[in-house]
Amino acid sequence: MGNETQLQRYKKLLQFIDERFKEDINIPEIEEACHYSYRNINRIFEALNHETIGKYIKRVRLERAAQYLRYSEASISEIAHDVGFGDVAAFSKAFKNKFNCSPSAYRSGTQLVQHINRQVASHSQETRSDVLTFEIETLPDFQLLGLEYRGAYEDVTAIKKTWHQLVEYAHKKKLLTEETIYLAEILDDDEISEHIKCRYTAAIILEDSLTIDSEGFFFTRTVGSRKYAKFLHQGSHESCPDTYHLIYSHWMTDVALEMADAPVLEFYLNDEADTATPDLRTEIYIPIE
């Protein structure tokens, strides 16, 4: 897909699906979004994502349902309808095929794991109590320039390569200044999604008055104003999952906020190139209702 027009169509389709995956999306809507016949775009989509459009939508729905089962108190029927399943029995069957257990068993199992994690964490609460200190903050609209990585979050080398490509591109476009804000969008939970399909967007915030034509797989997007629970992680980026683990294991009991359907944001407050590892700071913004 070297043709720039084709790339723009593909990116537009991805955005369309990610925004509408809970709804019934019909073939004419897909064709209108990308200006391709469904047969052709489905072939292209499968080649790039290793799954058809239909399988992609179904997988994302089920993964979102698993997230709701873990971190919300909504009933199984409410969750099934919310993620786009009109029939609870069909949802339960699809869920069991993917996760090898029923939705109720999945919820019970994750609740047990979270309970054990809280007990383990309580032994070191005195030394790590600051991890669960958070603020409620509403971020205004902002525009970002991003490049998406798909794969395991543990593949630090690949993620750093994505950052290198983004920074190199932004530098070529003369977009970087000393005030540039660097952030990432975390779109999937790697305990739910298949590792090879986890999505991570390396990004910088663009000045309000700046407009650029993104090229290739680089993209610009406006992130709407939203409320977040903001946590602070201190230490290496590789140890960030430990902080997420602690936050989520206490989410239902100590944080007690309703998560929203939006990416988690990570803001990088300093650079590992000139900062000692223990002093690295990452602000974690978890979207809430």
Structure description:
The protein has 289 residues and is an alpha+beta fold. The chain contains eleven helices and eight strands. It folds into two domains: 4-110, Arc Repressor Mutant, subunit A (Orthogonal Bundle), CATH 1.10.10.60; 135-287, Alpha-Beta Barrel (Multidrug-efflux Transporter 1 Regulator Bmrr, Chain A). The protein has helices at 4-20, 27-34, 38-49, 53-71, 76-82, 88-99, 103-122, 125-128, 156-172, 240-249, 251-255; strands at residues 135-139, 142-150, 182-186, 199-206, 218-223, 226-234, 264-268, 281-287. An eight-stranded antiparallel β-sheet has the order 1-6-8-7-3-4-2-5, with helices on one face. The radius of gyration is 20 Å and the shape is globular. The two termini are 38 Å apart.
Question: Any descriptors?
Answer:
289 residues, alpha+beta, Arc Repressor Mutant, subunit A, Multidrug-efflux Transporter 1 Regulator Bmrr, Chain A, 2 domains, eight-stranded antiparallel sheet, 19% strand, globular
In angstroms, what separates the terminal alpha carbons? 38 Å
Low-confidence segments, given as residue ranges, are 125-130
Q: Using only CA atoms, what is the Rg?
A: 20 Å
Structural domains: how many: 2
- The CATH superfamily of the largest domain is Regulatory factor, effector binding domain
Q: What is the fold named in CATH at topology level of the largest domain? A: Multidrug-efflux Transporter 1 Regulator Bmrr, Chain A
Strand order of the largest sheet: 1-6-8-7-3-4-2-5
Order of helices and strands: HHHHHHHHEEHEEEEHHEE
Derived structural class: alpha+beta
